[in-house]
Amino acid sequence: MSVPKKRKISELNVSSCSSREFQNSWTEDYGMVKKSDKAVCILCSTTIVCRTSSVKRHYETNHNFLLKKTKEEQKEYILQAIKNNNFQTNTLMKFVGSNSNIIAASFAVSNVIAKRGKPFCDGEYIKDLMLETAPFLFENFSNKDKIMQRIKDLPITRNTVKDRILKIAENITNQQIADFKLCNVFSICLDESTDITGSARLSIFIRYFVGSEIKEELVKLVSLQETTKGTDICKAVVNTLSEANVDF
After folding, report:
1. Residue ranges of the alpha helices (H) in 117-203?
2. SPIN-DOC-like zinc-finger domain: from which residue to which, for each copy (predicted)?
């Protein structure tokens, strides 16, 4: 009877380490990109452990609507999401309109705070966190003092974060208006619900073509002050589309 060949401990360690490394195929198959030593989902910005089973489980659980599409359609959707993410990053840098890395970093922090729905004052918390951890992270760096000074100079107070977010929102609105002028066809999606204060809110989404690219954007979140009848919803939609210069 043949005896199974035993694997050496070194071989097991190598196999274990390689299984925890980022795989390039995850980008096309599951929409993952590498950031530091982690896998980050380009579709929802969630950080995932570098393990195929974890990456696949996240994709199939949180983005299961894509499983109804063909493999080619899934790949096209993921590539478009990556393209949009890169475009937003480049647009943010252009919007800053300056070579100042400090200002760019301030906008980047404010953008994350807005995406996560965190209080504006969290900017100061983030700065304190960076100042506390930086001495340990950059202990052996020759330019450690310069790094510390950059962090100290980072303007992310409550009012600054508020101002940055308002400017980002204004810029996004201007981009939408410019796109709406170029689109020939579009469809509208409406969702009316009640928030925790008991106020009726109407979300207005538009899906449209710009060239050969399909985009889907939230145009506005409207408060329905009085009633939620069909006439109220219709009026809110008409006013919103008119404000956005949508030809309908």
Report:
1. 122-137, 144-153, 158-182
2. 23-81
